[in-house]
Amino acid sequence: MSSAEIAELLGARHDNVRRTIQRLALKKVIPLPPAEEKPATGGRPGLLYHVSKRDSYVVVAQMSPEFTARLVDRWQELEDQQAARPAIPQSLPEALRLAADLAEQNGALRAVVAEQRPKIEALGRIAESSGTLCLTDAAKHLNVQRKWLLGWMRDNRWIYRREGSARWLAYAPRLSSGLLEHKVTVIGLDDEQQDRLASQVRVTPKGLTVLAQKLGGAPR
User: Start and end of every Antirepressor protein C-terminal domain (predicted)?
Assistant: First the structure.
């Protein structure tokens, strides 16, 4: 698959796809694919990479993981087209190479499925929820112990307690990024005392998504 076709699938600029490929190759995550200069309507010709199936998964996962399913569909279309023109191995080395290629493709697809499974499970849990969740309900949705979740959120600077207070508060960056919210309620007292305000940390659907992805290996 060409780098231009990957760009079209992602709705991204072709030069951004090329830079991602070059950066991954520089880090030795993928080998630098073969390239050719494509004709351009104006200016100098552009560079076009021809990316293998396995490496295309890596590129798409780096740029836009949510488009992996679209890439799988496109590869299926290409393979269906190829199946209409079957190439029968003419020698033992060709047959062995074909078997190796099929094994590599199956391995790449299994790796993509394994990578996407925590995200799919997270989205499934979030689909069952609505609005914001208290910390106890968030722990239930994430299938972890409440005490463990509070410890993780504290250690990773999601929530904190003021000295001498038993109430959890959200760190400002978590509020501004829409991961957590503060719900303020009025606690009514008797006639001789004034009402007072109480603040409760709530986890938003966006925050639950991030937590589910980060806690994929958390103890249950």
Answer: 112-216
Domain ranges of the chain: 3-127, 133-214
Q: SS3 letters for the chain?
A: CEHHHHHHHHCCCHHHHHHHHHHHHHCCCCCCCCEEEECCCCCCCEEEEECCHHHHHHHHHHHCHHHHHHHHHHHHHHHHHHHCCCCCCCCHHHHHHHHHHHHHHHHHHHHHHHHHHHHHHHHHHHHCCCCCEEHHHHHHHHCCCHHHHHHHHHHCCCEEECCCCCCEEECHHHHHCCCEEEEEEEECCCCCCCCEEEEEEEECHHHHHHHHHHCCCCCC
Q: How far is CA 22 from the centre of its chain?
A: 21
In tens, the pLDDT along 160-196 reads 998 888 889 999 999 998 899 988 765 555 555 555 6
Whole-angstrom Cα distance, residue 119 to residue 216? 9
Q: Is 137 buried (19+), middle (13-18) or exposed (0-12) by CB count in 10 A?
A: middle
Q: To which residue do tokens 């951004």 refer?
A: 16
Task: Summarize pLDDT for 76-114 with one digit per residue, the tens.
Answer: 887 777 766 656 666 667 677 777 777 777 777 777 667
Q: Give yes or no for a contact between 112 and 118, defined as CB atoms under 8 angstroms apart.
A: no
